Each structure stands twice: as C-alpha cells, then as structure tokens.
Amino acid sequence: MQQKRCDLVIKGSYVLTQNDERELIEDGALAVSGSLISAVGKRADIEAGWTADKVIDCGKSVLLPGLINSHTHVPMTLMRGVADDMPLLDWLHNYMFPIESGLTRELVELGAMLGCAEMIASGTTAIFDGYMYEDAVGKAVDKSGIKAVLGEGFFKFPSPFFKTAQDAWDAVESLQEQFAAHERIRTSVTPHAVFTTDPEQLAESMELAKKLGLLWQIHAAESVPETKLTLEIFGKRPVQILKEYGLLSKRTRLHHCVDVTDEEIGWISDAGAMIAHNPQSNLKLGSGICPLTQFLKAGVNTGLGTDGAASNNNLDMFDEMRTAALIQKGFQQDPEAMPAQTVFDMATVCGASFIGFENTGALRTGFKADIVAIDMDKMHLKPVYNPLSHVIYSAGGQDVCLTVCDGQVLYRDGVFCTVDIETISLEAEKAVKWALKRLESR
C-alpha cells in the first residue's frame, strides 16, 4: 500500500474521538493535512498509511478534541482576584463597572493575550467571548491561534463606550466587516443583560443580528436578585421579556439561566435557543445552580463556559467539566444525574454547535485539526480503567502537554509557540496599579 503524505501525525495511548459513536481508540493516532484531520485510527494503521513531515508522539497520553469555552470575557483576566466573595450585583456595579469604564484598547488586548495563553495551556481551542473593544480581543485571538466568536458588549445608552444605539450598531457592523474573511474568528451581537438594557434596544439589536446573519448572545436569569431587579424595572421576568419581544430563536445564546421556571425552559426549548452553563462562576458569586438536567431533558443544546477570570477565577475547562458533573449529582442527590460523557459533550460537540463552528469538537476525518493531548504519566492519573473518567474527574488544565488548533501547534510541553508569555506576564502585573487606582476614584 502506497503511503499518503500529510503535514503532521500525532500519536497517543488513547483517542477520545467524540464521533457519532463516541468511539474510543486505544493506541491511536491522527494524520493532519493543513488545518484538517485526514485520518483517525489505530497507531499501526496510521503509520502504515501515512508519512508526515512532522511526528509528535505524546507517549502515555489521551488525545481529545480541543475544548470549547462557550461563555467568557477573556480580557477580565486583568481583574482576576480584584473583588472576591460578594454577590453578583455588588460585584458588577461597585467593582467591575468602575474598572471597566476606564479600559483602553491596549489593556483589553493585554488581558485577552493573557487569557488566550492561559486557555492554550489548558486545552481550550475555541471561545465565545463578549466584552468591550472586541477588535482588540480579535487581535489577541488572531495572534494566539485559537478560534473565537467575538461580541461587542453594550448597555443602556448613553454608556462609557457608546453614546447612542447607532454608535453600538456601527461598532458591531465594523467588527463583523473586520473579521468577515477570517477563518478562525466570527462575530455576534452582544447586549449585556435584560436589566442593563431596554427591551426596545434588545429587539433592535436582534434585527441587526438577523440582517448580518450573526448569533445573538445575552446574560439571562443569572440570579434571583437579577430577576427581582428586572421585575422592579419592567414588571416582568428576564426570560419572559425575551420571549415577548421575539428574542428567543435559533440564533439566541443565553448565558447562565440559573433562575428559570419550567415554563421558561419550555420557551427556550421551543424556540431552539441554546444556553451556556457556567457552574463555577455561578457558585462563586452565590448566584445559584442552573437546573441543567431539566434543560437537557427539554432538548436544549447546552455549552459549557468559565465566564470571566474575575468571577471564576480561572479559565480551566477541565475544572469546569468536573464541577458541572459533581454539582448536579450533589444538588439532586443522584450520582447518575450528570454522566461524564454528557459533560464532555457539552465541552466539545455541543459547544461546537453553540458557537456555530460545526466542523470542530470531534476528532474525525474532514474536521478541523483542533487537538489536545493530556499527559497521563502522572500519579493522579494512574491507573487507567476509563480515559474519559480521568478527563472529567481527575485531570486538570495543568496536565495538557499539547494544544493544536487548525493544524497549528500552539503549545507543547510547557512551551508556547504563538504567545510571548514573559512579556505578557510582566505587563499584566503592571495593570494591577491601574485597576486599584480606578477603584480608589469611585
């Protein structure tokens, strides 16, 4: 048999394919040509059928699809630890908003670069981001090599960033035009939340999303106090407002959905909208626990997200998967409530649907070569009965030894290939004085 040529072959002890059969391949390998996976199979078959310019043997390892962070604010790495142990509304209005109102594009890009580096080193290859100055976030994403959906956030007008609604719409269109031809970056329309905007503005922004063919994302029903505030302002609950204004649709992406009723879950399901589950942020802010199993029973596609590093306080999707699995078991007093496979799906194939990149989230021929390897030669990952069990319940981002996105090696054995981590780290430390000064001048 004549060998086919490819650019890269990656070998490992196990391959968690996440294909339709959720196939596990022992002693497996992948062939990569350009940005795509050319073949997945047994190591012996790949070695016999393919010759590569470069071969990476990860030794005792698990190969899995790059993880997908369905909700984050990457530049908020600059605020990691600046305000802990307080409820959502206090945290937002008295700490985050005062700091964020003074952000510059340079600071946003710095925070985004730091966040991208953190995610590369912990196995995340795609994100759904929302923040300010997202063109600067796009620069960081482009340099780092990961995938992203970017959303320029907006609040009630006038705001520190947009004086009028038209200013915000112009920024959204400009962002979309800037990255329209980019293979790894897409954009979205991103109102902050129901209680920080107006229903009419939300409806107008949805029309813009339809016009541009973009996803529409919003924080929704994140906590009981948020619901109470929304009721005081508008006389209705957050999801009720979204439904009545025609904002629940297949392009709608809802973040958090902690304080929801059975009826509201039904509305979300009927509309074909999707939700992002952010268990660690919800726990840290005391917001509550999303009724995740009810959403899944209703057929709602669910992604998994870290939220920003200021409310988590890391961007480690392995951490998030473990928490997502354990919290539902404990909350419902049912060890079968949230199986490992379901959580892994949320971070991979379901996450791909959530962010609108349908050709990632699985290791299969023709899909993008978004590949992560976990070093299994560690005490806390031995012995191995079931590799998936270790991925969800034992491994952490620190166990990642290889991250590849679109066929490009971004990180290997502690070395960053696209990011100047030393310079970023030094600059990030300087930002501390700036953030504290912002808080002093509140």
Can you walk through the features of this model?
This protein has 442 residues and is of the alpha/beta class. 40% of the residues lie in helices and 24% in strands. The chain contains 16 helices and 17 strands. Strands 1, 2, 3, 4, 5, 14, 15, 16 and 17 form a 9-stranded mixed β-sheet that branches. Strands 6-7-8-9-10-11-12-13 form an 8-stranded parallel β-sheet, sandwiched between helices. Strand 11, helix 9 and strand 12 form a beta-alpha-beta unit. Helix 13 packs parallel to helix 14. The mean pLDDT is 96.
Outline:
The protein has helices at 43-49, 88-100, 105-121, 134-144, 165-179, 199-212, 224-234, 238-244, 262-271, 279-284, 292-297, 317-332, 340-347, 349-355, 387-393, 421-440; strands spanning 4-16, 24-33, 36-42, 50-57, 61-65, 67-72, 124-131, 147-154, 185-191, 215-220, 252-256, 274-277, 302-304, 371-375, 400-405, 408-412, 415-416.
Calculate the terminal CA-CA distance, rounded to whole Å: 72 Å
Average pLDDT level = 96
Q: Note the overall shape.
A: globular
Q: What proportion of the residues form beta strands (DSSP E)?
A: 15-25%
Biggest β-sheet strands, sense, barrel: 9 strands, mixed
Question: Ranges with pLDDT <50 over ≥5 residues?
Answer: none
Q: Structural class of the secondary elements?
A: alpha/beta
- Radius of gyration, taken over Cα atoms and rounded to an integer in Å: 21 Å
Helix content: 25-40%
Count of separate DSSP helical elements: 16
Number of strands: 17
